Amino acid sequence: ALDIGVRGVHLAYQVLDGCETLIMVDAVQRGGAPGTVRLIEVSEQDRAAPEGVPVVDGHHMSPQAVLALLETLREGMGGSTPGRVFVVGCEPAELAEGIGLSPPVAAAVDEAVELVLRLLADAPAHPSPDEAADAAPDGAAERRTAARDSGVAAKGRPSAPL
Questions:
Q1: Is residue 160 part of a domain?
Q2: Residues 6+ away with beta carbon under 8 Å from 48
Q3: Which residue intervals of 78-122 are DSSP H helices?
Q4: How many Å is the Cα radius of gyration of the chain?
Q5: What's the whole-number mean pLDDT along residues 149-156?
Q6: Residue 84 falls within a domain, yes or no?
Q7: Which helix (H) or strand (E) holds 89?
Q8: Domain at 46, CATH number
């Protein structure tokens, strides 16, 4: 488990090291009541960037943008993408940048945690970075590590809809 916060680029590089299941937790605006928790399984077709939308944005990396960046990195550097991708989304009271949770979102945290724990219990274990490097094509793991360690990071706010 990794707490990435707003560092979506860092998450994409971490996932290249190998995982069977990726679970992202984020604000997801779908028009429901604030605090509504949703489970979204992202299909492989929905992992690409929408036409005309930049993959990397220094101020906002939605789950969809992270997945699109992951696919771009995999094509250029090798590595693998997760077999299954889930977003545990919570309907925000607002999407403005700020610190803290609104009362309805704070009240939904336990439900979101329980959902993540159920997903983790059902997910296969992922290989360690060393196991993933052993399975990677020659040089791919080193290129990913060098790129990941270059200090690239993104700042953001809760995401818009997937």
A1: no
A2: 67, 68, 71
A3: 103-122
A4: 16
A5: 31
A6: yes
A7: strand 84-90
A8: 3.40.50.1450
Over residues 119-126, mean pLDDT: 75
SS3 of 95, please? coil
Q: What is the rounded CA–CA span in Å between residue 73 and residue 144?
A: 9
155 within domain boundaries = no
CA dihedral over 162, 64, 47, 128, signed as positive or negative = negative
Percent of the chain with pLDDT over 90: 21
Q: What's the sign of the alpha-carbon dihedral 117, 121, 124, 129?
A: positive
Query: Residue 150: in which H helix or E strand, if any?
Result: none
What does the buried/exposed string (b/e) look like for 110-126 if buried means 16 or more CB atoms within 10 Å of the residue's CB? eebeebbeebeeebeeb
SS3 content of the chain, % helix, strand, coil (to 5): 40, 10, 50
Q: What is the pLDDT of residues 51-66, one digit of tens each?
A: 665 555 554 666 777 7
